[in-house]
Amino acid sequence: ITGESLPATRRQGDKVVGGAIVTDHALKVETGPRAENTLDRLVHIVWNIQSSRPGAQRTADRLAKIFVPAVLLLAAIAFVVQIVLGSTVSLALLISLSVLIVSCPCALGLATPLAISSGLREAMKRQIVVKNSSLFERVPQIETVAFDKTGTLTTGRMQLMDGDSQMEPGALQLAGAVEQHSPHPVARAINEALDNQDEANGTGGRTDHVLDYRSHSRGASAMVNGGHVLVGHPDWLEENGYRFSGRQRTKLEKVRQRANVPVAVGRDDEVLEVLEVGDQQRPETLKTLESIKKQGLWVVVLTGDSQAAARRLESLEPVDQVFAEVRPESKAEMMKGLSRSGATAMIGDGNNDGPALAEADLGIAMGTGGLAANSADAVILNNKLSSVPDIFKLARHTNHRIKQNLSWAFLYNAVAIPLAFTGYINPLFAALAMAASSIIVVINSTRKMRIAQH
After folding, report:
1. What is the Cα–Cα distance from 7 to 185, expressed in whole angstroms?
2. Between 268 and 199, whose confidence is greater?
3. Reduced to 3 DSSP states, what percent helix, strand and coil does the chain have, rounded to the nearest 5?
4. Beta bridge partners of 264
5. What CA–CA distance (Å, rounded) separates 114 from 123?
6. Which one of 125, 159, 213, 262 has the fewest beta carbons within 10 angstroms of its own beta carbon?
7. What percent of the chain has pLDDT over 70?
8. pLDDT at site 72
């Protein structure tokens, strides 16, 4: 719940976070009288933010209160003017009626909701649910886009980072033979990589003979095919008499610099290999960030991970700023600080992102569950990061149509009402013109949006 991508070890006397997930071994937790649930605290923060935010009010809504009374007044003035100029009562009534008929509050009233309805439909085609329609009006004002790291820019699950050519032959098979009995995220990553390798090579299931499996605080051991195998933290293997070669120590340092997890594999007092396990970047991450950057937006990354884990993102060209070791409660405050220099958008996936999504001018959630989806203005159902630029493009297209519709409605009324007032339009033509004005707004709103998908 803190947004860290790697498991953290806790020992007797350490404090733990309410809402954390135990991945390995048993854990006995003592709560004091003032202990509070982290998730409940985040929900409380989201509630305070959302309940204090004023609702958006559209231009057309404000003008609707003025338009109809103004037209009624103009019709009355037209009648009086015609009588004063010597026209008959019937002619004065016809001109007054023309003013009432030709005026088109319908075009003003339809301009915004029809364009938004079209935008909502296009969003659903891309498996995007827009929960707050004011999103279409807010996106053009956005200047800063903040991304959560773990689970948003990365896959959010541990994976083996080594390629087949980088590993000592047989090391992965031995590690998998031992780790198949462990529920730890690192163990699952090793076994998943081994299963993928077997599938790619067309080989059958596991045939290793495993005996005397034991789980330790920093690894696991077992007898595999008659040899004693240890898999775990490099320091643990060193404490048990295993020695690392120069190549292995170099790799160990590189893995730690990348803030990934080094997993040593040893057999019969010999270190065979150092495996690299970590939270992998999504394949579409760089392309998505580049697309956002091309739209002239400032790109920021917020993460609960360490400075070392965040360093990889700093090297990405589209990323302007990275904030590491950010606690869940602090993310909302950081979004509030970023908003001082302009409107902000936040993209996240976890419960820990809920307050930040609610605080941002625009919140976008990846996936459908938890506090993130409840706090966001838009939810990406298919969990594709590449849908984020589509939301920005879609909102700008929709906003452009709203402005087109409103411009047409104002232009039409600005021309048609004076013509009717001066007697150049009769009631029949006024009725046709009024209907045509509304139809033009409908056609403009429902025409297909041409937005290239990633």
Report:
1. 8
2. 268
3. 50, 15, 30
4. 232, 274
5. 14
6. 125
7. 89
8. 86
404: which 2 tokens?
A: 């087109």
Cα–Cα distance for residue pair 235/431, rounded to 1 Å: 86
Q: How far apart are CA 350 and CA 367, in angstroms?
A: 9
Mean pLDDT score, 114-130: 86
**The residue type at 76:** A
DSSP code of residue 11: -
Task: Label residue 308 by pLDDT band (50, 70, 90).
Answer: confident
Phi–psi pair at 219, nearest 5 degrees: 165, -165
Q: Pull the structure tokens for residue 387.
A: 């849908």
Packing angle of the helix pair 427-446, 105-125 (nearest 10 deg): 20
How far apart (Å, rounded) are the C-alpha atoms in residues 431 and 246? 88
Q: Which residues, in sequence order, are CB contacts of 268 under 8 Å at separation 6+?
A: 227, 228
Rounded to whole angstroms, the Cα distance separating 316 from 288 reads 12
The residue whose two tokens read 């338009």 is: 67
φ, ψ for residue 155, nearest 5 deg: -70, -25
Taking the C-alpha atoms of residue 441 and residue 407, their distance in angstroms, rounded to an integer, is: 10
If one counts every other C-beta atom within 10 angstroms of the C-beta of residue 6, the result is: 17
Please tell me the distance from the alpha carbon of residue 371 to that of residue 375, in angstroms, as a whole number: 6
pLDDT for 55 equals 41
Q: How many helices (H) and strands (E) does the chain have?
A: 16, 13
Query: What are 61-82's pLDDT values in tens digits?
Result: 666 677 778 888 888 998 898 8
Q: 227-232 and 219-224: which strand pairing? A: antiparallel
Alpha helix positions (H), 317-386: 328-338, 354-359, 370-375
Residue type, 100: L
pLDDT of 387 reads 92
The pLDDT confidence band at residue 144, using thresholds 50, 70 and 90, is: very high
Q: Catalytic site residues?
A: 148
